[in-house]
Amino acid sequence: MTPDRVLVVNAGSSSLKLSLLGPADQVLAGLDLDRWHGEGPTAEMRSFAGGLDGVGAIGHRVVHGGSDVLAAISSLTDLAPLHQPRALAGIRAAADLLPGVPAVACFDTAFHASLPEAAATYALPGDWRHRFGLRRYGFHGLSHGYASRRAAEMLGLSPDQRRVVTCHLGSGASLAAVAAGRSVDTTMGFTPLEGLVMATRSGSVDPGMLMWLLRDGRLSVAQLSDGLETSSGLAGLAGLPGGSGDIRDVRAAAGRGDPAARLAIEVYTHRLRREIAAMTAAMNGLDALVFTGGIGEHDAALRAATASGLAFLGIAIDESTNKAVHGDADISVPGCAVRTVVITAREDIEIARQTRAVLRKGTTP
After folding, report:
1. Which of 108, 246, 249, 299 is catalytic?
2. Residues 36 and 54 in one domain
3. Per residue in 26-64, pLDDT tens?
């Protein structure tokens, strides 16, 4: 049975989004809780669920886990500490609100299961890799999967032209190299800490430096872990009052002449351009560059600065179109070798698609 109506539960690190999607992926009802920290169903959630009609299935976004059941998902909390507990809380809350409705967990890591061994393997001792399952998993797969398909559809790319770099830029940020619909490289790794500079996460740093910080009691493991997850990235670079890592706050401070904020934007942009070029190399070329996520969709200045540093790849965007973009749009200069598009993040559509596929076939999508 393929359900017509799917309730999508997207639990973020501090928020919760509920969306009821119809058979054509239209949003029939929605509830956004900006501040939700995993407590049981709130009165607002109960009121919302009570008004729903005909929910055939529930689809949940889970950051890490593959095909694990709840106990195993919980065991992976230390690999995604900002998200995994919230996902579990969302699963339990939905079961409380809509008992008996089939529920499907959709994993952010699944899209990257196609990574070739050369891209997925860390240069670590074989015993470590096999004993602890050390490999690059990648994240944001639901967003990368949707954005790459939507871009190919918008641009009419043929299968041999589908070399797409998707840039999911939000509080968390990652890139994916998607060739003919399959992920062949990505910036996040064993955990969501690897890769780009993010709002509060460091992205990739020298592991030798981390060992030095742990040696002789300079920092404890807990201090290092918390610092890398919650006090680094744009927040750590800009040093704004209150520790904000919101790029809007950082950009405003840079506009007021704050040198630390200016440097934060420069570091963020430098790493982004560098990693886009690396993703391009993984596919031996590029046909389309995609910006998605809260920052990717709304920060025209970042898109312009990124593109200007990648002209050697054939990327060129139209300044006026870039500034005026709203929703899905091609912002490329006409005739340029690489098309650049902005795609509205729709993880809900991808979750509903996978949920329907699982219930229809009884297999993973």
Report:
1. 108
2. yes
3. 999 999 998 777 777 889 999 999 999 999 999 999 876
The answer to whether residues 25 and 352 touch, using CB atoms and an 8 Å cutoff, is yes
Q: Which of 244, 243, 250 lies closest to 265 in space, CA to CA?
A: 250
Domain residues for the domain of 241 are 157-342
Instruction: For residues 210 and 296, state if they share a domain.
Output: yes
Domain assignment of residue 146, yes or no:
no
Q: Provide the domain count of the chain.
A: 2
Give the closest residue to 358 by CA, choosing from 21, 56, 25.
56
Q: Token digits for 308?
A: 């200007």
Judge if 131 and 252 occupy the same domain.
no
Q: Model confidence over 214-237: pLDDT tens digits? A: 999 999 999 999 999 999 999 999
Same domain, 81 and 198: no
Residue 108 bears catalytic tag = yes
Closest Cα to residue 194, out of 119, 264, 246, 132? 119
